Amino acid sequence: MRSFLLSSFIALGCLNVVLPATAQPAKQAKKVITVTSTPGKGSQDVVINGTYATKGEKGETVYITTDENGLRLKLVSQGTVTIAEDERAISSLSEGGRFEFSRQEKNAPEHKVLLKNVSGKLEANYWIDGKVQDYATAGQAWLATYLPEMISKTGLGAEARAERLYKEGGIQKVLDYTAIMEPGAGRTKMYRHLMAKESLSPADARLLIEQVSKGKTSDYEASSILTKIPGALLSNAETAEAYAKASATLSSDYEKGKTIKHLLKQENLSEKALDKVAEAISTITSDHEKVKVLSTLAARPELSRKQFEVSMQALQNVSSDYERTKGLGAFMHHEQQVVAYFDTVLPLINGISSDYEKAKAYSSLLSNSKLSANQYVPLLKASESISSDYEKSKLLRKMAVHLPKEDKKIKEAYSQAAKTVGSKYEYEKVIAAY
Predict the structure, then answer these.
(1) What parts of the chain have a pLDDT lower than 70?
(2) How far apart are CA 427 and CA 236, in angstroms?
(3) Lower CB count within 10 Å: N or C terminus of the chain?
(4) Which residues form the signal peptide (predicted)?
């Protein structure tokens, strides 16, 4: 029976797979992969569902995992524990090694198995709520049932398993396995192991993305996996589109935003992929998170008409005056699109309640060098809605610098807007500016 090793380790939960495989003691010549610790290095493993790892007083590794349903798993290991390839039995322990595994569901008895290698002899014990049971008839069957769950939740040996399956049948064999795994650290580590492979193709990445989006346990887990997909793979148009589509399935605005921004870091995204990104952004409900991602999209040097249009539609649902002004400001350098969608942009500004933010947004619009004379008239009319004489006066005086002096309609519109300034002092400044 081939097996892989779980070695005694601890670095606040940090696991590393050490390759090539090392061997068991001389008489056992089994092919193994050893999981060891990396003392002093920060962990890259994510704690999921309350998984906690620490080092016991005698150097043993202690894992405790709990979930929202009241399930509690505890694993104590010391020395080298060899787990059978089917992950349903412990095939051997190193000299002095120890494997203790307990499991308790909410309001249910605790089951515990303890295996020890004492002077080369395996000692096995099994308890239910502290009462001794027969290991051979009951303990082995219980361990075979729940050992895979423990491995999945703690992530022990996950990288080794992923590597073995990959060598046997490529990414498809790994994904066939992860498709039936319980969500948790083990599955996440297997996904990450795949993504670290240089041989991973864009088509492989799409298979992985599809499985992650359909089989996620949480938005956090899905985001933590998707954001680790290398940029080289996302430069492929079809893969980028699949990624954008997957990001839209996340419910958490924060995790969705983080996932989309990872994609937007890639410079050479296809127009279709960016269209999917814009659509995904429109599903974010939080004003703050939506504007953060929209600003990342707006920072790109060019946007298609569709991408700009979908972005403006997304801003229509931003109720915060501050966030809407901030979001609009991010798109103002796309002057050609602003002019083309002027009749969409202007109402977005008109819908801002705060005089300060509204005047700020109008002022940002005025900086567009491509505005035509006939667009100043509705802009002047819109400025009348500003209640503050100070803010209105400041805006009109800034507009006066840009306005054609010989256009009769513009003159009339400016004069009418000026008359809505109640303060004589501010009114005179407005008239003098034009």
Answers:
(1) 1-57, 59, 216-217
(2) 58
(3) N
(4) 1-23
**pLDDT score recorded for residue 33:** 29
What range does the domain containing 66 cover?
3-154
* SS3 assignment, position 391: helix
What is the C-alpha to C-alpha distance for residues 408 and 402, in angstroms, rounded to an integer? 15
Contact 222, 189 (CB under 8 A): no
Q: Is 59 within a domain?
A: yes
Written as six digits, the tokens of 37 are 């610790």
Pairing of strands 3-7, 80-84: antiparallel
Asked whether residue 414 is domain-assigned, the answer is no
Pair of tokens at residue 351: 């819908």
DSSP 75-103: EEEESEEEEETTSSSEEEE-TT-EEEEEE
276 within a domain of the structure (yes/no): no
CA distances to 394, 403, 434 from 398, rounded to whole Å, are: 6, 9, 10
**pLDDT by residue (tens digit) across 352-400?**
999 999 999 999 998 898 988 889 999 999 999 999 999 999 999 999 9
Q: What pLDDT digit, counting tens, does each position of 233-261 carry? A: 998 999 999 999 999 999 999 999 999 99
- The structure tokens listed for 45 are 């493993």
Q: Are 204 and 174 in contact (CB under 8 A)?
A: no
Looking at residue 53, its pLDDT comes to 58
- The tokens describing 92, both together, are 């051997």
Q: What angle do CA 49, 249, 317 make, to 5 degrees?
A: 115
Amino acid at 220: Y
DSSP 199-259: T--HHHHHHHHHHHHHS-S-HHHHHHHHTTS-HHHHTSHHHHHHHHHHHTT---HHHHHHH
Name the pTM for this structure.
Answer: 0.67
Helix (H) or strand (E) segment spanning residue 177: helix 158-178
The answer as to whether 182 is a domain residue is no
Residue 155 per-residue DSSP state: -
Q: Determine the 3-state secondary structure of 65 from DSSP.
A: strand
Number of domains in the chain: 1
CB 12 within 8 A of CB 43: yes
The Cα 362–Cα 402 span in angstroms is: 13
